[in-house]
């Protein structure tokens, strides 16, 4: 446990979340990807414990990326959808049970849920001692 891919076209958000995860969750290996098409390579490898996808991105939106990941065999319960949209919109497009969580990335209460997910993965990774080298890796542009 412990390998996370975060896909978001907002470079500032990726920098902030990547730094936050590196500082607070030492047993997680985090890959940040600013271009959705680059994420396809990481998803195909099949070794992700968590996939975090921004819903609205150019070229390849989060919904298509979600369906691609599930189509490759990834468990939908290991995918989190993030967006700046209101909860009603998000739950209309991703009803309860479709994936692990659908969260508004700008609401503080929703960030707590994301932290709970990261914390759980971090504890599992620490308990299993599976990762020797940890940190945040940015996908090459």
Commentary on this structure:
There is one protein chain. This protein is α/β, with parallel strands linked by helices. The protein has a single domain (3-136), classed as 3-Layer(aba) Sandwich (Rossmann fold), CATH 3.40.50. Helices cover 44% and strands 20% of the residues. α4 links the parallel β4 (79-83) and β5. It is globular. The model has no long low-confidence stretch (mean pLDDT 89).
- Spatial sequence of strands, sheet with the most strands: 5-4-3-1-2-6
Kindly name the structural category. Answer: alpha/beta
The portion of residues assigned to helices is 40-55%
Largest sheet: 6 strands, parallel
| Proportion of residues in extended strands | 15-25%
The CATH superfamily is known as Response regulator
Unreliable spans are none
Q: Could you say what the CATH topology is called?
A: Rossmann fold
CATH class: Alpha Beta
Task: Give the tally of β-strands.
Answer: 6
The N- and C-terminal alpha carbons lie at a distance of 26 Å
Question: What's the topology here?
Answer:
Blueprint: E1 3-7, H1 11-24, E2 29-33, H2 36-45, E3 50-54, H3 62-71, E4 79-83, H4 87-93, E5 101-104, H5 108-128, E6 135-138
Parallel strand pairs: 1-2, 1-3, 2-6, 3-4, 4-5
